Structure formats: structure tokens, C-alpha cells
Amino acid sequence: MPLRTSFSGKAWVLPDDVDTDQIVPGKYLAKITEEELGPHVLEGYDQAFPENVSEGDIIVAGENFGCGSSREHAPLAIKGAGVPVVLAESFARIFYRNAFNVGLPVLEVEGLPEATSEGDTLVVDLEEGTVTNETTGDTFQAEPLSEKALELVEAGGLINLTRSKLDRDD
């Protein structure tokens, strides 16, 4: 199946400094798959979020999204909830790396959180690095994902990419 690089979905707007404990509360750390974690995504931020988010919705956040611990549970939970991409002013370094390691694309988009209202429809193009708010008509430019980042996303993360490369070497 070819890599999907364009997404359209409803925006959920979050503030600065949403940490990994808000994305996945510690009581769920014994769960390790995206299917197990998805039903609890952002429960530490808003108890009702897991019930209200729908597959295809897009998270828009302020600065330093994913700060806190270095656990991969946070991006796995986001993927498990069906969120195809996270857009933020900036990401905590380890969250950013973990997102790609599990195959979740993320883009840093300056000015997007302030110009987006919850429920706006966004169209994201990973290859072009564009985000269009179809509700307002505004378009934002982010750094497009590199070929390596797209390769990680297409493979579903670092483990899958490594497995596929090892299989080719056999």
C-alpha cells in the first residue's frame, strides 16, 4: 500500500506544554500496544477526550508538546486513537523522535494553534509541509518531512523498517 501523505480532519487544539503523563497517564504504562493505549489518549488532559476524538481527527498543540518522560506510549496512544498526524508549534525532542520511531508523523507549524479553533477542518500535506485550514482559508507552511522521515512513517516505525531491511538482506 502506498504511503498516505495527505490528511483531512477535525482539529483538536491543545495548549503549550502538554506532557506525556497527560497524553497517557502512568496507570496505563503496563499496556504496550497502540490498540490498548488509544482508548486512553489524552485522558490525563481531559477525561472526555478519548470518548470525543474520532479516527482522522488532528491534534494541534502549542509549544513543547510531549514534554516529560521518554516513553513511547504517548505517540502510540495517539496512533491508537486514529489520529494520523500531530501539528504543534514545537515538540519535546524525545517525543518528536519517538513519534517517528512508531510511525506517527508530526510537523512543527508556526502560528497554527493561534489561528485554529477547535473543530476547524485541516488539510495536511506531509510532502509539501502545508497545512490548510479549510474553515478559515488560511494556509501555513512547515518544513516538509524528509525522505527518511517519510520512510519511517511508511514502514510504521523504526522496528518495522529495520525488519523489512533485514528481510531484504536474506
Topology, element by element:
Elements: E1 6-13, H1 20-23, H2 34-37, H3 49-52, E2 58-61, H4 73-80, E3 86-88, H5 93-101, E4 106-108, E5 121-125, E6 130-133, E7 139-141, H6 147-155, H7 158-169
Parallel strand pairs: 1-2, 2-3, 3-4
Antiparallel strand pairs: 1-5, 5-6, 6-7
Care to describe what's here?
- With 170 residues, the protein is of the alpha/beta class.
- It has a single domain, classed as Aconitase, domain 4, CATH 3.20.19.10.
- It has 7 helices and 7 strands, in the order βαααβαβαββββαα.
- It has a 7-stranded mixed beta sheet with strand order 4-3-2-1-5-6-7, with helices on one face.
- The radius of gyration is 15 Å and the shape is globular.
In summary, what is this structure?
It is built from 7 helices and 7 strands, in the order E-H-H-H-E-H-E-H-E-E-E-E-H-H. The chain is globular, with a radius of gyration of 15 Å.
Q: What is the 3D form?
A: globular
Q: What count of structural domains?
A: 1
Q: So, CATH architecture? A: Alpha-Beta Barrel
Query: Can you tell me the residue ranges where pLDDT is under 50 for at least 5 consecutive residues?
Result: none
Class per helix and strand makeup: alpha/beta
- Spatial sequence of strands, sheet with the most strands: 4-3-2-1-5-6-7
Summed up, the helix count is 7
How widely separated are the two ends?
Answer: 22 Å
Number of β-strand runs:
7
* Share of residues in strands: 15-25%
Average the pLDDT over all residues and give the rounded result: 94
Outline the biggest β-sheet: 7 strands, mixed
Portion of residues in helices?
Answer: 25-40%
User: Which homologous superfamily in CATH is the superfamily?
Assistant: Aconitase, domain 4
The CATH topology corresponds to Aconitase, domain 4
Radius of gyration: 15 Å
